[in-house]
Design goal:
Number of strands of chain A: 10
Helix content of chain B: 55-70%
Oligomer: heterodimer
Strand content of chain B: under 5%
Order of helices and strands of chain B: HHHHHEEHHHHHH
Strand order of the largest sheet of chain A: 6-7-8-3-9-10
CATH class of the largest domain in chain A: Alpha Beta
Largest sheet of chain A: 6 strands, mixed
CATH topology of the largest domain in chain A: Rossmann fold
Radius of gyration of chain B: 24 Å
Helix content of chain A: 25-40%
Largest interface: A-B, 23 and 19 residues
Order of helices and strands of chain A: EEEHEEHEHHHHEHEHEEHHHH
Largest sheet of chain B: 2 strands, antiparallel
Mean pLDDT of chain B: 86
CATH superfamily of the largest domain in chain A: P-loop containing nucleotide triphosphate hydrolases
Strand order of the largest sheet of chain B: 1-2
């Protein structure tokens, strides 16, 4: 079997802000991570743990002050590397992405990325419609002004704007912040669909342990700029004590299991899906 | 990035100068400028230079920062110095072609350089040691007599405070929008001027939208808390009160002025 190569790999990445000023601060401190095609990685960490700074390195928006970042084996900061086309392949959805909308119509706004890629009009139109479908934007909204939409719709338009570039990796910084449960679900299922259909890697930064538990395969835990853990979801949420120590938490469902364990029940606390746990509890009751 | 620009620079600290009443600081700066322009003769300049250096040390702001503030003025300083060297008549020291360098010219040039340096240093000292909010508060209090002339002093100072408050916020926002559009392949660096200006549309539109949104939210939030502009009974949370150090510093600057004035009568 062929060895699968990482699509993106960070090696001992360091980023220090304001070098030589009184405000000097190391936001990312020696992070090494390999990201493979088809990965769905959740990133969690307390506010100010360096998550946002870290992910902005991944498409070359900020230059690391130390360490290297390779995309398909090539150092992206070597001389002559085409950063612009890297950004089409590593799509980045910022926090509150709806604040970046500017075009007259939703269709044009989603098409901004593909247009910058220099694609033909038909290709752009095809991609815009496909991306709108992923993001759950009804056809009739495409001709509207993005400023007339609701908050949740705007958010989806902004995410579609990235998906339309068909990136091989899509990075999302808290895409569900400030949305209602239905809005969250719609966005997360759109991302999942993109992940599955396009075989793209997804990196999802979130404060919601539930969202991470339900969607991600692996979790990166950042703490004070360092990579505290990087493991499959199950293994990360098993370490509830450490997570709580660094100001994070486990999904509610894991919390319930831990409480059961404290009460002396013999349960496997590494389960994290509601269905699994429901089955377990029913099973215990019937015993 | 844009964040590195420090606007209306303020460097928090706890020196004697930081703690002075902002109103007194503004008045002292004005007085100090008057004294600077009164000065004539090397004794006065020596005295003023010594005092300025003393104040710089007292403010506990790194001297490097003061020097950085002077850098943009380098050309003006050199230019004035040259003009003074060549266009002052008096005892000729060197002469070549149509140029004459006089002893008086050299002195004048030196005085002029010192005067500009001290002027800039004193002004930067005010902004370095006073936060913008406190500065506008002090300014409002000093200008409040103008209310008699129906000038809306309070509204102006509130506008200024808010503008200053939102400079860093908008800079940060600009930074974020630029990054977001770059992530979609926007190109701000290549092409001719017209192309580059056009390339800014995806930044400017979201920026305006967010500025207006913020303004509206802020206005609503202020109204919710009962803000109606200058009312008769509007009081302030921070009450400025002059204390010993303020009077002492006033005395110091007035004393300095008197000393500079009397150097004129010295026999040398």
């Amino acid at each position: 079997m062929d060895e699968i190569k990482p699509i993106l790999s960070a090696e001992n990445l360091v980023h220090t802000y304001g070098v030589g000023t009184p405000f000097e601060k190391t936001a990312v401190d020696g992070v090494s991570v390999d990201i493979f095609p088809n990965d769905y990685i959740g990133v969690i960490g307390h506010t100010g743990s360096g998550k946002s700074t870290f992910i902005q390195h991944l498409n070359g928006l900020i230059k690391p002050t130390g360490g290297t970042l390779r995309f398909q084996g090539e150092d992206i900061w070597q001389k002559g590397y085409d950063l612009k086309s890297l950004r089409f392949r590593v799509g980045m959805v910022f926090q509150y992405p709806e604040h970046q909308l500017f075009e007259e119509t939703v269709e044009k706004d989603i098409g901004f990325g593909p247009k910058n890629m220099g694609l033909s009009a038909e290709e752009i139109s095809e991609r815009v419609h496909a991306a709108a479908e992923f993001a759950g934007i009804p056809e009739k909204l495409l001709s509207k002004s993005p400023f007339d939409l609701s908050g949740g719709q705007k958010r989806r338009v902004a995410i579609a704007g990235i998906m339309a570039m068909r990136p091989e990796i899509i990075i999302l910084d808290e895409p569900t912040a400030g949305l209602d449960p239905k809005g969250r679900e719609e966005i997360l299922s759109g991302i999942k669909e993109y992940h599955e259909r396009e075989h793209a890697a997804v990196i999802l930064v979130s404060h919601s342990m539930e969202d991470i538990a339900r969607n991600a395969q692996k979790v990166m835990v950042m703490h004070r700029g360092k990579l505290e853990m990087f493991a499959p979801v199950r293994d990360v949420f098993r370490r509830a004590d450490r997570l709580r120590e660094i100001g994070l938490d486990v999904p509610q469902i894991t919390g319930i299991l831990l409480r059961l364990k404290e009460q002396g029940y013999d349960v496997d606390s590494s389960l994290y899906s509601v269905d699994e746990v429901a089955e377990l509890i029913l099973h215990m009751r019937n015993k | 990035m844009i964040k590195d620009i420090t606007l209306g620079q303020y460097f928090p600290g706890n020196s004697l100068i930081h703690r002075l009443d902002p109103r007194m600081k503004i008045i002292l700066l004005l007085l100090y400028m008057v004294v600077l322009f009164m000065a004539s003769g090397w004794v006065a300049y020596l005295l003023l230079t010594a005092v300025t250096v003393f104040l710089m040390l007292l403010s506990r702001i790194p001297v490097k920062l003061y020097l950085r503030g002077l850098r943009p003025l380098l050309i003006i300083i050199c230019f004035t110095a040259l003009l003074n060297i060549f266009y002052t008549s008096g005892e000729v020291l060197v002469q070549f072609w149509v140029f004459k360098i006089t002893k008086e010219g050299l002195f004048n040039a030196a005085y002029m350089i010192l005067r500009i340096l001290m002027l800039v240093i004193a002004t930067s000292m005010l902004t370095y040691t006073t936060s913008p909010i406190v500065l506008t508060g002090g300014l409002e209090s000093l200008l409040s007599p103008l209310r008699v002339l129906r000038i809306p002093v309070h509204e102006f100072s509130m506008m200024m405070t808010m503008a200053l408050r939102f400079i860093p916020t908008l800079l940060e926002e600009t930074d974020k929008i630029i990054s977001a559009q770059k992530a979609r392949g926007a190109d701000f660096e290549s092409g001719n001027l017209i192309r580059r200006v056009k390339a800014l549309t995806p930044v400017l539109i979201p920026l305006f939208v967010s500025a207006f949104r913020r303004a509206e939210e802020l206005a609503t939030a202020m109204e919710c808390r009962g803000y109606t502009g200058e009312g008769k009974n509007r009081s302030r949370f921070v009450q400025y009160r002059l204390c010993l150090r303020d009077y002492a510093s006033l005395l110091f600057v007035v004393g300095l002025g008197a000393a500079v004035f009397f150097t004129d009568f010295l026999p040398f």
